[in-house]
Amino acid sequence: AQKITQTQPGMFVQEKEAVTLDCTYDTSDQSYGLFWYKQPSSGEMIFLIYQGSYDEQNATEGRYSLNFQKARKSANLVISASQLGDSAMYFCAMKSPNAGGTSYGKLTFGQGTILTVHP
Amino acid sequence: DTEVTQTPKHLVMGMTNKKSLKCEQHMGHRAMYWYKQKAKKPPELMFVYSYEKLSINESVPSRFSPECPNSSLLNLHLHALQPEDSALYLCASSQDSRGPATNEKLFFGSGTQLSVL
Hints:
The complex is a heterodimer of chains A (119) and B (117). Chain A has 119 residues and is mostly beta strands. Chain A has no helices and 12 strands. Helices cover 0% and strands 50% of the residues of chain A. In chain A, the strands form 3 sheets. In chain A, strands 2, 5, 6, 10, 11 and 12 form a 6-stranded mixed beta sheet that branches. Chain A starts with a strand and ends with a strand. Chain B is globular, with a radius of gyration of 14 Å. Chain B has no helices and 11 strands. In chain B, strands 2, 4, 5, 6, 9, 10 and 11 form a 7-stranded mixed beta sheet that branches. In chain B, strands 1-3-8-7 form a 4-stranded antiparallel beta sheet, with no helix packed on it. Classes of the chains: A mainly beta (119), B mainly beta (117).
């Protein structure tokens, strides 16, 4: 069974500092994809960053980077230079073939982490 | 255009009403999804359409009825809902290359906040 674990229900960070949001996963598949989504209070789920299981380098997208440690099955999101607009719920998610569904796999979400950025 | 548009943004309905949620995308995506999300919880998959055919129904009660009139539109028809069905309903789409596509990301709309009285 596929499982995503986010152990931090809430995190606080000072504006302009960096913050790491934890994510561990469990799958027996060799090929899988890891995603991070941001959900502000408006409700929309915004795609942030993707890491493939065969990617040798950690993914980066602007202020977002993914600290991928395959042996530990972790895919932590690092947000550098936090901004007030980063305050939101953050979900880690995984897609793997044996989860079923279209496009070779269903998206499995973690429980989410609420990030609050203080001025 | 990388938007998924959902209407209405808010909906209040009684348990005997019939209403519909609408979702539209113009990215040429061939997979469309309905998710249900309770407050402070992750989204839960309800239905998946692939090439306008229903490919996944996650044992959703029949009071929810999805419809995919064409590749750009997805509807969710609601009838005789219960108060516990109150939630944020999110629509999403993805390319659906029908191959090993574990890198295929989902694009989500802003959702419809549904309240059942």
